[in-house]
Each structure stands twice: as C-alpha cells, then as structure tokens.
From TrEMBL:
<keyword id="KW-0539">Nucleus</keyword>
<keyword id="KW-1133">Transmembrane helix</keyword>
<dbReference type="Pfam" id="PF20266">
    <property type="entry name" value="Mab-21_C"/>
</dbReference>
<dbReference type="InterPro" id="IPR026250">
    <property type="entry name" value="ITPRIP-like"/>
</dbReference>
<feature type="signal peptide">
    <location>
        <begin position="1"/>
        <end position="20"/>
    </location>
</feature>
<dbReference type="GO" id="GO:0005640">
    <property type="term" value="C:nuclear outer membrane"/>
</dbReference>
<dbReference type="GO" id="GO:0005886">
    <property type="term" value="C:plasma membrane"/>
</dbReference>
<keyword id="KW-0812">Transmembrane</keyword>
<feature type="coiled-coil region">
    <location>
        <begin position="38"/>
        <end position="72"/>
    </location>
</feature>
<comment type="similarity">
    <text>Belongs to the ITPRIP family.</text>
</comment>
<keyword id="KW-0472">Membrane</keyword>
<dbReference type="InterPro" id="IPR024810">
    <property type="entry name" value="MAB21L/cGLR"/>
</dbReference>
<protein>
    <recommendedName>
        <fullName>Inositol 1,4,5-trisphosphate receptor-interacting protein</fullName>
    </recommendedName>
</protein>
<dbReference type="GO" id="GO:0004860">
    <property type="term" value="F:protein kinase inhibitor activity"/>
</dbReference>
<keyword id="KW-1003">Cell membrane</keyword>
<dbReference type="InterPro" id="IPR046906">
    <property type="entry name" value="Mab-21_HhH/H2TH-like"/>
</dbReference>
<keyword id="KW-0175">Coiled coil</keyword>
Length: 549
C-alpha cells in the first residue's frame, strides 16, 4: 500500500514539473526555431534532390556506356564471325584453285601427247579439211618415188664431203689459235634434217655444231630457266653461261667485293687471281663488265678463227670458202670453179654439264629463236637427242616404215606453199615435233608402209589441233615418258612443258599468217602433189575412192 501511494505521488509531481506553464520564457522561442529548422530542412532536401539527380544522371550515363560497350562487343563478335566465315571461304577457294591447278598439270603431264588411237577426237577436228580431197595411196606412192626417194643418195654424198672438209678446217683452226688464251674447239657433230634423212628441198644444207670450252684454268657454269633461278616466261628455253675459274666458288669470295688494301692479301686466293680486270673477261668473250658469255662475241671470234684457218689450208683445195649470210654468222658456202656451190652451217655450242644438250649461239636461218632476250641468253638445242630418238624408235618399226616419208611429204608441201605465199611462223621444226609426238604414242605396227596415207592424215589433224589451241609442246621438255635408253637429263623431264606456239599468242598477225598458210597448203595439196606425179594408169586407181579427211 505505501508503495502504491508513493508511485501516485511521484507521478503527480512529475506532471506538475513538466507542465509548459512552468517554463514560459524558454517556450517563447519555439516558433522561431521551427521556421529555421524547416528552412534548413528544405535546403537539405533541395541539396539531397540535386545529389539524387546527379547520381541518377551518373547511373544513366554508366548504363548508356555499358550498353554501348555491349553493343560494340556484339559488333566485334559479329565481325569476327564474318571474318572467320570469309577466311574459310577464301581458304576453300584457294584449295579448290590448287586442286584444279594440280589436275591441270597432271593432265598435261599425262595426256598432253596421248593422241594415239583417239579416232573420235580426230573426227571432230577436220574443219579445215572439209571439201579437201586427200590424194590416194597410189598417187602418194608415185609422188614419193618420183620426187623424194631419189634425193637420199645426193644427201649421203654431200654429208660425207662436208664432214671431211669441216674436220680439216677445225684442225687448222686449232693450229692457229693460242692454246693458252683462246677457246678450245672440239670435233663437230651433224644434226638436223640432213642427218635424220628427211630433208627434201634443195639446196641441201648440212647443219654442224662445234662444242668449245674455255682455256685453263677457266670453266663454264651453266644456268637454265628450269634450274631454280628466276627466269621470266619469255625466257623459257634459254639459259646463261658464266665463265669462272675451276676452283672458284659460285657464290664468290668477299675479296672480290671488298677493297683489302695494298698490304693485305686474301688467304683463299692468290694476288693474281684476286683481281679480274674487265679486259681479261672480254678476252674470254664475256659481255662487257660481266662474267657471262656473250653469243655475239663468240660468233665474232669464231668467224675470225675460221677465216685464219681457211687461209692456212686454202692452197689444198680447188674452191673458195666464204660466209654466205649476214644474219647467220655460221653460214658458210663452198664455191667451185664450175659455178656449183655447197652450203653448210658451222655453229659453236656449249655443252650443258655432261649431257648432249647444248647451248647454241645462233640458230641457222633464225627459225626457232627469232627474238633472243639478249646476247648473254643462249637457246638450248636438243637436236642430238632428237636424232637418237628417231634412230631408237626406227629399230622397233616395221621394215620400210612410213614415219620419215610422212615428214618428208609434209615438209615438201609446206616448203612449196611458203614459196607461193611467203614464209610464216610455221617451220619444219614444228612439223618434226608433231612426228615425234606421234612416234611416241602410236603403236609400231601403225607405221607400216601401206599406212602412209592414214599417218599423213594424223599428222595434219594433229597440227590443226595444235594451231586451233595455240599449243604445240616441245617433245622433250616436260615429257616424263622419254625412253631411259637415251640418258636424257631428268631436270628437263621434270620441267614445265614448253609451248612452242607461245610466241604466237601475243603476235596475232604472225599467228593468222601461220593459220592461213596451213589452210592454203591443204587446199593446194592435191595440185602440188599431182604436179610432181607421173601419170597413173586408170587400172591402178579403180576401186580406190578419194575420201575427204
């Protein structure tokens, strides 16, 4: 009870003490403080609102930046995917292109000369043969016997006479040359139509090549277009010949490129061999300020040496010797007192390594190398291997095979046509190349003498195909099917096939002239053959029908 009363009293006292009427003075300022507080609260609220706006703006900017970064990342990702897709298509296109190129090369290596037995392909050609009556077997046989067969004896006698005189002339040439300073001349070799027994047109001209080598201690280092060096397309079939010392490194010593001074010597080279004056290289028939053999210098030296040699032995012979053609430096002519003459070509060549491929300085009558890039570029001739191939194949053919007869007839027709309409880009070498291809692809029995007409048609159709495609490949270069018995250098078999008609692709005027000459030859073929054919009795031609090609 007392405790309850105490609590009531304490509550009453507390209420009285806290009544506002007891503090009039302090409570008089309450309204003023309230307005100030309200004002501060409004200012604080305004600052907080501004801060909130600023923060909201920053957040919005950050969100915009984030969205931009995300969008850029998406664009980059899409571009990467697009680039990957493009790279895949590019790589795929390159693979397809390489496969096509490999297939083309395989096709060229395997099928560019596989025309034997393709009668269906031959049948679709023949556009130029429409309306052309091909001479029958009897006419061809009579023509060959009357016009061509009688020339073989004359060729044999002329070859024997020219070879004997050339050997004597070269022996005299060696005697007038300085063995320590001049080029060393070897024995000559006969090449070309006269030595392959298919030349028919007169005057007969023997082609002889004369290998030569530099004096000691020098040697020739040959580079070809297919030896790994960079040669432009128009220089395919050519090479260069560098004159070096036998013990000289092909890369050259630093003493040749650096001035060592008068009191310093190279430990690898002597004082004599360390310098190489330009006059010394010019004495070695090199192009000015180079080590490369100059074809023009070689021909000048050879002409002077031949003239000296002839002056030494001219008293032994009852005829005169002279250079017959200005554009063929090796063209010589023997003139007898009776007025008769014999022409032959004596051309210096350089042997390629240990093979029978030769660098030739000038082609007789400029039939194959009309536009030589420079006098330091030498054309390669495979004439020795061509002669050997014909001899090798002839051993497998039937007796009295018609392969040489085909080439003789075609060469005669072409020569007659050129005498009527003028020369064209088509040469006898192109005709021989056609025969070489057919000899390799046709079975041996197809060259029996009674099949002369059919094989002559094959040669004409093959030539027409080559003219139409502007492609006639060199027989040896790029041909992996050359018989191993020939010992032909493998480097040329692995090379890209050389198109002999490539110069005519850009020379449309020459190409058109060549095609026109071929067509005119076909149209005039019967007339040209009949002109040199004896009369054939009607009984011989009964039952033989002239069929157009």
């Amino acid at each position: 009870m007392p405790v309850g009363l105490f609590r009531v009293c304490l509550l009453v006292i507390t209420a009285i003490v806290n009544h506002p009427l007891f503090f009039p003075k302090e409570n008089g300022t309450v309204p003023e403080n309230t307005e100030e507080i309200i004002q501060k609260m409004k200012e604080r609220e305004e600052s907080l609102r501004l801060e909130q706006l600023r923060l909201e703006q920053e957040i919005a900017d950050q969100e915009a930046t984030q969205k931009a970064l995300e969008k850029a990342a998406v664009v980059v990702e899409e571009s990467k995917e697009e680039r990957v897709r493009w790279d895949i298509w590019t790589a795929l296109s390159m693979v397809i292109f390489l496969l096509i190129e490999l297939w083309r090369q395989d096709f060229q290596e395997g099928n560019w000369q596989d025309i034997g037995g393709e009668e269906d392909d031959m049948a679709v050609l023949g556009k130029a043969f429409k309306g052309v009556a091909f001479p029958d077997k009897a006419v061809l046989a009579s023509f060959y016997e009357k016009r061509i067969l009688g020339t073989t004896g004359d060729m044999a006698r002329m070859r024997e006479m020219v070879e004997g005189f050339a050997d004597d002339l070269l022996e005299a040439l060696r005697s007038v040359c300085n063995r320590d300073a001049d080029m060393e001349v070897e024995d000559c070799m006969g090449v070309g139509s006269m030595y392959e027994n298919w030349r028919v047109r007169k005057p007969f001209v023997c082609d002889l090549i004369v290998p030569f080598a530099p004096p000691e201690p020098y040697c020739f280092r040959c580079q070809t277009w297919c030896s790994g060096d960079a040669f432009p397309p128009d220089e395919q079939g050519y090479g260069t010949i560098k004159v070096c010392r036998a013990n000289e490194d092909t890369t050259g010593c630093i003493c040749d490129k650096t001035k060592l001074g008068e009191d310093m010597l190279c430990l690898l080279h002597s004082q004599v061999s360390s310098t190489r004056p330009s006059s010394e290289m010019e004495d070695l028939l090199c192009f000015k300020n180079t080590q490369y053999l100059d074809a023009d210098q070689v021909m000048k030296w050879f002409q002077i040496a031949v003239t000296k040699a002839w002056n030494r032995i001219s008293h032994k012979y009852e005829f005169d010797l002279s250079f017959s053609l200005l554009d063929s430096p090796g063209a010589l002519k023997i003139k007898f007192k009776s007025g008769k003459s014999i022409a032959f070509n004596l051309t210096p060549v350089v042997q390629y390594e240990n093979s029978d491929v030769y660098f030739i300085s000038h082609f007789p009558r400029s039939s194959l190398a009309a536009d030589i890039p420079s006098s330091t570029h030498w054309f390669l001739t495979f004439a020795v291997y061509e002669r050997r191939f014909i001899q090798l194949v002839s051993k497998t053919l039937p007796a009295n095979a018609c392969h040489v007869s085909c080439l003789q007839i075609l060469s005669f027709l072409h020569g007659k046509q050129c005498s009527l309409t003028g020369p064209s880009g088509l040469t006898n070498y192109h005709l021989k190349t056609v025969l070489l291809h057919l000899l390799q692809t046709r079975p041996s029995q197809d060259w029996a003498p009674e099949k002369l007409e059919a094989r002559l048609q094959d040669m004409l159709k093959f030539l027409e195909k080559c003219l139409h495609e502007k492609k006639l490949y060199h027989f040896f270069i790029g041909n992996g099917k050359v018989p191993a018995e020939l010992g032909f250098p493998i480097i040329f078999q692995r090379a890209e096939p050389l198109n002999l008609f490539r110069p005519f692709v850009l020379r449309r005027d020459i190409y058109r002239k060549m095609v026109d000459t071929f067509h005119e030859m076909l149209r005039n073929m019967s007339a040209l053959i009949n002109e040199y054919t004896v009369h054939i009795p009607l009984a011989h031609t009964n039952g033989i029908r002239k069929e157009p090609l």
